[in-house]
């Protein structure tokens, strides 16, 4: 979202006032408190003495119109806020309590220890990637004795038909694999689905890797491969690559998908959406599937839009190919292996002392939300927008700070388009107010309304 920009980092220091709504809270509103250092998500959250600890708890606790969530001043969170909507009866407010600096939301991961880096030779250093744990989350991942735990759905009402099951003739590893013979593909992605019938547990804040071997009798591009809950309301539980769309060819290849889980659930499943993609008359073969958990939570699960280094808070220079790394501070994100590579005369942590990797996701993603107030918050080091999202209305952003925002790869792949605004209202936004805010070191625009519809 937002207009692509390929220029250098732009400095903005602005105070912005736009005419807009006056959002008032309801008479029976609840107030919740969050303390990064002294709180507990097992606490009630209804007083500073019983404060919650994480933004994840805030994101997953149902709020009502007029409710207020207050973050302790001086606190620091490396999480991403998914705000909830209020109503005309009252906005939901996200603000601050106590004394000291504004609550700090960081859209980055720190790589400031020498152990975070691996020497690749010459002046090239790469972030170390946490290993995968040994435990397997999928039941029957290699179809050794049956196809139990897997099911293929053909939606007759969508015009899809075919057959599927364990295949002892074509496989990547003996004795068998799984094949889907498509007679009619249908039109919607949901018209053909391959999914796990045995559910498994995933934890918020943790990254998981799906790997599998596949080939097809006719080349096609999978619509998406999603990690999802098994029951309504079908809430999004992952971020990054949840709509991975590989092209399957006639040769066996290994594919990997990264999932960053946003919500803990005991009933996760993997779903391949193949409808409208797998050609009629083609057979899709899959084998050796695996879902494993990364051993640590500091995996760079999204594109790194910027690196911010040292006490002077200077920025690196993003490159699009590893071969372009030739000067101190230049960096490249390897989206196939989820690693950052930096040109540095010595270990980057030793050279800079302090190094933040700004991940390309909105620090606050308010897509589809309304009747919200953000007040007295400090948002830094995000690779996408500070606050972003489409189809929003009755939003107030008051007395907030935004710095070192943007620079991320908007499209991924070979697109080479960077973006990132301090506050962006995308598509059909109305009744919005931004006042008393400070914005500086923003890659694209400090404040913008954009889109392809009315805005």
Provide keyphrases for this structure.
single chain, 455 residues, mainly beta, six-stranded parallel sheet, disordered N terminus
Q: Can you lay out the helices and strands and say which pair or pack?
A:
Layout: E1 31-34, H1 55-60, E2 68-72, E3 76-77, E4 92-97, E5 104-106, E6 108-110, E7 117-121, E8 124-127, E9 150-154, E10 160-167, E11 177-185, E12 192-196, E13 200-202, E14 207-216, E15 220-221, E16 224-229, E17 238-239, E18 247-248, E19 253-261, E20 265-273, E21 283-293, E22 304-309, E23 314-315, E24 317-318, E25 330-334, E26 339-343, H2 348-352, E27 355-359, E28 364-365, E29 370-375, E30 378-382, E31 387-388, E32 393-398, E33 401-405, E34 408-409, E35 418-419, E36 423-426, E37 430-435, E38 438-442, E39 447-450
Parallel strand pairs: 1-2, 2-4, 3-5, 4-29, 5-30, 24-25, 28-31, 29-32, 30-33, 32-37, 33-38, 36-39
Antiparallel strand pairs: 6-27, 7-8, 8-26, 9-12, 10-11, 11-21, 12-20, 13-20, 14-19, 14-21, 15-18, 16-20, 17-19, 22-23, 22-27, 25-26, 34-35
């Amino acid at each position: 979202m937002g207009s692509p920009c390929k220029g250098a980092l732009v400095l903005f220091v602005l105070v912005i006032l736009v005419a807009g709504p006056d959002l008032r809270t309801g008479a029976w509103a609840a107030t919740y408190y969050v303390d990064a250092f002294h709180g507990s998500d097992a606490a009630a959250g209804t007083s500073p003495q019983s404060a919650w600890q994480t933004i994840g708890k805030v994101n997953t606790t149902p709020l009502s119109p007029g409710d207020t969530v207050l973050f302790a001043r001086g606190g620091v969170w490396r999480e991403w806020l998914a705000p909830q909507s209020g109503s005309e009866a009252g906005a939901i407010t996200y603000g601050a309590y106590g004394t000291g600096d504004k609550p700090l939301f960081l859209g980055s991961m720190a790589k400031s220890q020498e152990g975070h880096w691996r020497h690749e030779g010459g002046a090239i250093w790469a972030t170390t990637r946490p290993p995968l744990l040994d435990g397997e989350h999928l039941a029957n991942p290699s179809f050794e004795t049956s196809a139990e735990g897997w099911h293929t759905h053909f939606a007759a009402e969508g015009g899809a038909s075919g057959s599927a099951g364990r295949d002892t003739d074509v496989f990547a590893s003996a004795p068998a694999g799984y094949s889907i013979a498509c007679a009619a593909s249908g039109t919607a992605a949901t018209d053909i689905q391959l999914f796990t019938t045995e559910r498994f547990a995933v934890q918020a804040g943790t990254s998981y890797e799906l790997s599998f071997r596949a080939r097809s009798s006719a080349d096609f591009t999978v619509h998406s491969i999603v990690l999802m809950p098994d029951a309504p309301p079908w809430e999004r539980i992952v971020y990054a690559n949840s709509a991975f769309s590989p092209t399957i060819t006639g040769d066996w290849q290994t594919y990997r998908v990264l999932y960053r889980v946003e919500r803990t659930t005991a009933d996760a499943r993997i779903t391949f959406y193949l409808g409208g993609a797998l050609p009629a008359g083609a057979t899709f073969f899959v084998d050796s599937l695996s879902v494993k958990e990364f051993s640590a939570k500091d995996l760079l699960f999204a594109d790194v839009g910027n690196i911010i280094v040292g006490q002077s808070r200077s920025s690196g220079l993003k490159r699009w190919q590893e071969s372009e790394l030739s000067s101190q501070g230049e960096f490249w994100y390897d989206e196939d292996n989820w690693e950052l590579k930096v040109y540095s005369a010595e270990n980057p942590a030793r050279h800079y002392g302090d190094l933040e990797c700004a991940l390309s996701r909105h620090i606050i993603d308010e897509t589809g939300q309304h009747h919200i107030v953000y007040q007295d918050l400090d948002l830094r080091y995000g690779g996408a927008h500070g606050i972003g999202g489409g189809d929003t209305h009755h939003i107030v952003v008051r007395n907030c700070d935004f710095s070192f925002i943007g620079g991320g790869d908007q499209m991924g792949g070979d697109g080479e388009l960077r973006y990132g605004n301090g506050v962006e209202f995308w598509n059909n936004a109305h009744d919005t107010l931004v006042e008393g805010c400070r914005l500086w070191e923003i890659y694209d625009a400090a404040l913008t309304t954009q889109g392809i519809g009315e805005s």
